[in-house]
Amino acid sequence: MTTPAGSGTGFGSVSWWGLSPAVDLQAESPPVDPDSQAETEHETPELNVLLLGSVDGRHLLRTLARAALWPRRRFHFYVLENNLEAVARHILIFSLALEDPEKMGLQERSETFLEVWGNALLRPPVAAFVRAQAGRLAHLVPEPDRLAEQLPWLSLGALKFRERDALEAVFRFWAGGEKGPEAFPMSRLWDSRLRQYLGSRYDARHGVSDWDLHMKLHDRGARVIHTREFRRWRDTGVAFELRDSSAYHVPNRTLASGRLLSHRGERVAARGYWGDIATGPFVAFGIEADDETLLRTSNGQPVKTACEITEHNVAELFREMAAWGHPRAAEGDPEQVQGGAEGSSEPGQSSQKFPGIYPRERMTKGLKTDEESHLQASSVCLTLPVFPSPAAPAPEPFTVHFLSLDSAHTLHHKSCYMGQFQLLYVACGMVHLLSAELGACVAPGGRLIVELAQFLVDLRQEQLQAFSSRVGELAQAAGFAPQSGGKPSDTFARFYKAGDSAPGHEDPAVESGTPPPEVLAPPLEATDPPSEDRTQPLESGNPPSEPLKLTSESQASLLEASVPPTGSQAPKSENQTVPPETKYPIPDI
């Protein structure tokens, strides 16, 4: 048996990472209206973004990291996923990104993020971190007061009570509620998925991976992905090997999810790995970079691999994110700087007060008396011109609101969401949720950005074109029109809400991806700009229309997303939510 090309089964039914590079959502949103800004006067303008299927928070992290380059705005991110495991990974990733730098350094945070986010197997220290964080979050989720105190950026108020209970169960499973690797045998599950996907081509899997890489991903713009790293990920699920290969042997429980399967004529709940085994996590941070030297080639071959570019981009991202979690750690403590100007400069009282000015005790040690007196006199002249630089203002707080899993078709019933969002982001696996009701939640003049299936290797070129055409039809039916004048993109489709005062106008930032010069407002010390899904599940409650059929029950084609839901489709039933804390036997698939 051989899986037919174009079936989309390699994408899986659960998305753990995005299939497009991270974007700055401020560059995609409409500019601040001067009239509305004048009405608010002293209030900071807000940016409300609704994201469907963003899965890994890369767009949110990128937006927060580049916020210093734009005028001050308060962010409200409304995230809607179709499984609670993705919500839990969002929370874990943000808690890691905002970790205190004194507790975890930049390199350790970056490496921990890469392994938890993109590796099927973890090192023991990283697995211990996941268990500790999951145990902490499991205690915070059922206690709203403590949650608001320790994680002020997180809002779970829109989740139903049963969803909060299931979310707590997910964290408890991650924390090791079921001991031992047999609770989630990742290596066996990965190999099982691979055998089912390749069929009779399993023995030639290295040739298949080389073909998919060179004839598909490279041709579609991901030339920096190296053969060795892509083949290693296809075989073992380890995309980022930052240490010796023998160190990766602990299953990554954050990639586990539950679903209902047919086993011996009965519907049973099973936990397994139902994610991507075809493309990999290299696209999100590994094929683009602000530093152009990372993308240069030598003799027609990229100098840097996708793993190296990803490490650099994530490290820069977390370095810029330090201002959000702990402003004093990133900008310096203004009280200490002012205290240094008033404090005494006598030896032994304090250490260095100003950068670049050494204590007099160190400078005059070992000198003769006349030289010492001359140096002390001259040191006064050296100290006088040095003044503490004004600290940059702390960034505006942001909030991540997680919406109920089945609320996409009911948001327009609530007045608080009608015309609320300036930007709507839809992942390629959630396109089937794009409707006129959802479009009513976007403010006039708002923007819509849809992720295309450019890097889904299972789809042929004609299927990619059909998917893009279908996205345009759904967007038009939802009340959006294509943006004109921008740079064509094979990765994203961009639209604006019909009724915009300037339909043909496009924000220059949308084309360039960087803030226009007239709106740049960097802090005084930031003189250089920083460098830098899921398909519809089988039991999602939004089945495809009759002409579209799956090859088997465990397959979930991306083509489901291109079929609009019918009016008779019912929302997702409660009995399809599988509490992860219950151990079920995993049947052979």
Automatic annotation (TrEMBL):
Chief place where the protein resides: other
UniProt keyword terms in alphabetical order: Cilium biogenesis/degradation, Cytoplasm
Superkingdom of the organism of origin: Eukaryota
Location within or outside the cell: Dynein axonemal particle
Domain DUF4470: 16-122
Pfam families xrefs: DUF4470, DUF4471
Keyword tRNA-binding among UniProt keywords: no
Residue stretches of biased makeup (Polar residues): 565-579
Residues covered by region (Disordered): 326-357, 479-589
Domain Dynein assembly factor 3 C-terminal: 154-483
PANTHER family linked to this entry: DYNEIN ASSEMBLY FACTOR 3, AXONEMAL, DYNEIN AXONEMAL ASSEMBLY FACTOR 3
Similarity comment: Belongs to the DNAAF3 family.
Function: Required for the assembly of axonemal inner and outer dynein arms. Involved in preassembly of dyneins into complexes before their transport into cilia.
Name of the featured protein: Dynein axonemal assembly factor 3
Organism expressing this protein natively: Bos indicus (Zebu)
